[in-house]
Amino acid sequence: MDAVCVKGSWDVILEQDEKGDLLGVLVYHLRQYRGFSMILMPPMTAYSGFYFFYPVGTKGHTKVSYQNKLTEKLLSQLPANSLYYQQYHPSFTNWQPLYWKGYKETSRYTYLLDKTLGEAVLTKNLKGNLRRSFRHIIDACDIVTLDFDTFWPELDNSFQSRAKPNPYNKAVLSNLFTAFSGTEQLTVKACRHKQTGEYISGVVLASDRVTTYYIASFYKPSAKPSGSLGYVFWKSIFECNTQICDFEGSMIKEVEFFLRAFGGELTPHHKVHKVHHPLLRWGLRLLKPDFFV
Predict the structure, then answer these.
(1) Each residue of 164-203: pLDDT tens digit?
(2) Which of 86, 89, 128, 243 could bond 49 through an S-S bridge, CB–CB 3.0 to 4.6 Å?
(3) Which of 122, 224, 201 is nearest to 154 (CA)?
(4) Is 157 helix (H, G, I), strand (E, B) or coil?
(5) Are strands 83-87 and 186-193 parallel, antiparallel or unpaired?
(6) What is the pLDDT of residues 51-62, one digit of tens each?
(7) Domain 126-262, what architecture?
(8) Residue 148 DSSP class
């Protein structure tokens, strides 16, 4: 959170039992903007919010009761705010306590890939044209590691060449490179053409103990062979010592089509919001009607 909260602060609310054992947490990013205090998602961050720690042997009906009770307790301890907006991790499946408090929800989707099946099995599950493109790329390209000073210009130039704005935050990405330097938590790879030495695509992935998450990528559409982004993405996933890859999805049709080709399981997660300040509610409705879409 230190790396991504570049325009505000962050905090965490803890709920513990009488022994001091952790029951649940609520992580949030707080930003001040033109007199409004807002809980928002930090840039380049897919998930935040509630995380629960269940006692061993917790049954289904007990788990729901546990979720309801903790969600309400944690939510009640948030600082006063004009706007609340968070996207929850796919493991958070019960947003009913927020609905009862007047919060609104939009479903989003990601793709989760179970890496425990092994690379050979999962490669067979790739969409045919993606898998076939790998054959040409293996002969023409190498997979190499990049530092930030090399990766960022390549990423930035790839968007400029397509006359598209760069959607990534340079300060955040730089912070991530610095924070994870010397660890296995950040994987930065590029597909380099053997003959020209050109970097034709690249990807940044971040990992915790269980899951690898997509962070950023670039590709050069005019470069040959085509399909290099899919290849560098795929090979990088299996360099990470994790069980799951979270592609972090997209509601953009073309991006969803690309991510679907990797064979992951379509998985919903919740985007939840509530506008507390009447002036902000009116302003968003008028000036940014698609803010929560």
Answers:
(1) 999 999 999 999 999 999 899 999 999 999 999 999 999 9
(2) 86
(3) 201
(4) helix
(5) unpaired
(6) 999 988 888 789
(7) 3-Layer(aba) Sandwich (3.40)
(8) H
